[in-house]
Amino acid sequence: MSRVDFYVLSADAPDARLRYACRLAERAVEQGCQVYIQTPDVQRLDDMLWTFSDGSFLPHEIYRGQEAAHARVMVMVGSEIGPQSHRGLLINLTDAMPSDVNAYDRIAEIVDVDPERKRTARERYKHYREQGCAMESHNL
Predict the structure, then answer these.
(1) Is 107 in a helix, a strand, or coil?
(2) Sign for the pseudo-dihedral over CA of 36, 81, 108, 18
(3) Record's InterPro entries (predicted)?
(4) Are 110 and 17 in contact (CB under 8 A)?
C-alpha cells in the first residue's frame, strides 16, 4: 500500500510546483531513494533540475521507455508511467491519477494556488483514500 503526501503550497510564485518537486527529489535522493517525476512538461522540469539551486546538481535522465543508463541515476523524468527501477517515490505533477498507485512506495502530490489544480487534487485525494492509501497533507 502506497503512502501519499499532498504538499499544499501557499505562495503564488512562478514555477513553485517545479521548484518544490526538485527539492523533494533532492531530499529523497539524499535518503537513497530512486525517484520518478511524472510531468506533462518534461523539458521544463529537465531545465529546472539543472538550475533550481546554485549549490547542487541533481543527476537525472529523461525517461523514454528505457531503464536508467547508470545505476547511480536516482531521478528519472517523464510523461508516462515510470520505469520499474524508480519506484521509491513518484512525484506526480500531472492532473491525472497514476494508473499504478500501489507500484510506488510513496507518492507526492504538489498542489499550488491554482483553483483548477486544487479541484483535481481533491479528486485524486478521494481516489487515493478509496484505494486505502496512507494519506497525509502538509500545508506549506
Answers:
(1) strand
(2) positive
(3) DNA_pol3_chi, PolIII_chi_sf
(4) yes
